[in-house]
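Feature request disguised as a bug: please show the residue count (1243) next to SET domain-containing protein in the output. Example input:
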Amino acid sequence: MSTCIRTLQLFLLATTLASSVCEEINKATRAIELSKWLNEQEGYEFNSKQEIRPIESTIPSPNAGIFATHDIQEGEILARIPWNLIVGPVDGDRLRDAENEEFEEEGPSEASCSAFRNLYGEMQKGSSSMVSPYIDYLFATKATLPYSFSENGKHLLLDILTNSHDEDDVPLLEKLDPPFLLEATACDEEAITTEGHLAAELIVQFAFQSKMIPIYDLYTHRNGKWLNTETETVPGEYFKVKALRDISAGEQIHSSYNDCKECPNNLGHYSVPDIFRDHGFLEPYPQRWSIPGESAHIEYTRDDTGVIDEPNFVYDFETDLVVHDDGKWYWRFSEKNQLVFLDHDEEGEAIVMWDMSNDLVLDELKDSWPSYREELRRISRIRNIEWDKAPETYNITQEEWETIWAFHETYSNILESALDFIEDHSGLSTDHHGHYDDLTHEGDGITYNELDCPSSELIDFMDYDLYEEKSSNYQVMKWQTREEDDDMCLHLDDMLQICTSYRPHYHEYFVHFPAQYIEKVERVMFLGSGDAMLLHEILKYPDLKKVVGLELDQDITRTSFQYFQTQPHYDDPRVEWWYGDATKTLPLLTKEYWGSFDLVLVDLSETVVSLDVTGKHDILDVLENLLKPDGVLLENELYIDRFTSHFDHTIHIFYGSPKVCTQVLTLASNNVDFLHHPIKDHGIDSYLTKTPEEDDERFMYIHDYLKSYAPDDVCSATENEGVVQGRTAGVMEIVNFENIESFPGEDLEQSLISMMELNGFKPLSKPAASVQGHVFVVMEEGYLSVRCWEDKLYCAADINLWGAFSKRETVRELLRSALQSKTVSDYRVVVGGMYGSKTLEMDQKEIGVRFSQNQNCDARRGNMETEIDSETMRVLTQETARIMEGRTDLTAIVVCGFEDEEECEASKVLQSDDTNHFSKVWTIWACPELKTDEDEVEEEAMFACEKNIIAQHDESNSSAFDMLVFDETATYEMMQIFSSIFSDSHEHENFLHPNHILASSFDKSSKFKGRFVAERYRSIPDTIVSVSTIMIRGKGGDELGWMVAYAAEDYSFLKLSKLEERLQARLPGLDLEIQGIVGGEQHVQKDLAPQNMTFTKADYPTLPNEIQNQEQEPLGRQSVVQMQWSDKQASTEKVVEYLTATLKEMHYKPVRFETYEDVGEGCVVAASYAKGSAIMVFDGRQQLVLNLFSFSQSKKRANKFVKTLETLSDGKLKVALRDEQPRGVGRVVNFEKDIYSQVAEME
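Example output, currently without the count:
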């Protein structure tokens, strides 16, 4: 080994930059020498149409490469390196590695360790090594990798990579140290020696798949259209480099570190920072980036010239990698399966290219851009504020300095490009072309329901067994159970709904938390929760008169009775179930429902509540009109922004819940102010929810509070009664009359006809004898179907109305009275209606959404007598400081305007405050250099001001301050500067104590101050801040806002509520109120204590369920099938034809078959036969409803009937919705097969 090379080795072993005369030996020269030696080795081949040349570059990059001297055809061998010249793992290690996935996950791979030991062994041999010329080449051409930069150089690089100096906390990378270096240390004790460390470093920089391959590193990395090679490895024989495509003379020949068939381990997030870390150079375009804090993987490509259509691919949730249908690898964008591309134009500017054919892309971009801009501003601040001096100031070499800033520039470019694109295509202003924030309204961007959960229960079903999976006509139900504690869980379409283990966590809070604001809980409506668990809690209220449940799928209710042992209480006269699409159900409610409910509880997905009801209004828009003025609406998850436009008062509550960890509920009301309204103790027995005994307890779970005033357009709107629907709908009430004392005789149908006539209906049927106990009466307004079992003292009735809806309950009660039934069970199924109904005009007055204005449209207190003045500011400042009452040696910062222009009232107040006794008040005046006659202050002046403020603080050796107040004179530029200072977590910690208060006033001309506190300051990472907005109105309608940001361990809503009380007491001549508190505490850890996570079915009364289960006796199956008719020539004749043919095909001989057309535009066709009955209602357009009954409970028989009907219609009739229910006695809920399985389970 030459003296020159040995000299280089010694310098490298000391991990310093080589500075000897040997630096003059460049990589190209060394590569040519290596090539000459290789040409002498047996089995080595190097295509003569290529040569090694030096490369000049202004950025850190390889300084030598291989170029084509002649045209090369696709498939030509460029180089063949025999196996004996390759330093790497032995074959056995490589094979064991592929089979031993667990070992590879837990520690260094055998292949990596083998490669390391082999290279280290060859280094130890010196000149006697058969590959010593290759080892010499590696030493001579090795680059300085970032991990071996000087300490200050690494400090600067880490500043760019992360807002932390911790090498283990680098979002762009796993660590600053290359992973293989860490693996090598674990391979062998020798790895911790200097020489061993160098061996590992050489493998990091030069190895391909753990193999050191001579000459291959000269096929330098570049992707996109520049990539023109592929490799072929035959272990034990050779490694080949081949032309991937035709290569023109003069073209450089490139390989890839992360886009090749033989490098699958690098196909993940291996991108620009990884290449910079492992190889010491900046990847040329195209580039791939993984933006920190996001799952968006952005790739630069120069050869793509336009937007690429969304490809067809199968998405694997275990990886971010997808394959385009052109066979190339691409990356998904976030969690919505969108692909992201960037291009690079001829001028060198980065251009983002996304597939814009899907709106989800824009939605994701709109959600993501704040994090991109935050990162851009952070790294810009590093350049402008933190590292703005010459490199020698920081003891950083010029080479390191230039390398690091080249990386910084590349990183800035990618962020700017993405933001430019988002701005161009979304209509948003991302405000990213300057260092400083313009403080426009953007929201705080905080994920309010981010999980912070110690529970091992979190969405974990590894130890659960599948108990049953069944498909209803609406969704797939999956029931899972855990043997150790008998926990039972329900999933709908693979989404967790509820488990017995956290039943009280969800349903008690859902009902009892809003109920504490209601004086008497008399009327409640709930949507969703077909499992009847909400109903169980609602029925506890002693004053309850009616509870209405809207649920899509009655099969949920029936299987919950079976597995959760929850009762639907169909026999409770207070309980009213409606099954069907809520968008069809709500417009069918009569006027007595609207504005009558104390509680409306919404347990639906965001998708469902957004469904259209009236053509202009979705479900949430409509639900508010069901409430009394003093009522409360509750919705699961985050809806506070949506609700503030509908209600005067809104809150979020956060609490811990097993499986889901953090549960969020939104409560809204017009007359109930959740901050001040009294709490009512209803004496309800519950496991988790208790009536607050102390003032502070009532606010324990409230995370956010907003008070709003109705906008002018709402206040000027008139009440809109009755909405005409663009579709028809009807109601079929299913009623079971049991324990009948007056059993009907043969004249039942005549009695029904007479009864309906007396009550204003218009029957069309003529009396007829019953068929197997079945009679039906068809009317202009609907029909009645009654089937009786005399031996069971039971009648099953269907009341199907498409008109005269307001008389539905009257009909049921007339039947009950006539039959003298002691036990009545009923529920409703929403079905199709009838076009041309003769009662339409009357119905429009009785049913339909009733829009009413319940928001407070009265102006706030009239013109006040007191002006907002300096005394107002003095009181605001003093009383806000009192939040920290009890703490000693308080210190404060006050940011003011220009010293020579105006006084700083806040500073004077705190310095003379006898109540709070501040030991130090630092008054920061606006920097003189910010004063200008121009429209905008130069950024250089703001840079100087920011650095001066930081320097003053550092030089004073002050501890962190307890309070920061922005005086009303504080300038826009000073707010911008403090926004920049606090964006650095280290500076934020230096300036403010962890338990601190920040306060600022704002008015119409200085809303930027409010936005700084409410939005920017709240979003500072790792800072939990609650912000209260207090609005003050004075003489002449003048308004002032006062923002208080509160970060403290002793935080509570109560302290902010008391602040409002004190301010109102001291400023009686002003209209003053809290209009918002955002960002309260979360009690997830407390709520998930072990004693609160052990609930089972046995914790709820099961005996009533067991009794009902034993008593129920199904006597037949009823199927209510709603079908869509695609035949534009649909008619009564075809209905008759299809039903007749179906009965014949089923071998059902009708005893009674009747057709009625005088019901509107459609018809009713009814048939009774020995085995059951079929009644078909055609609405006159495209909907047909089949009411099918069979004495057999076989679903196969019902399916065959429906399938036959579809077939005979030539496929023009298709099932849209379908409900199945048993008819029988014993308050029947389940079919016979389910009763037996439940009995067996209990036994």
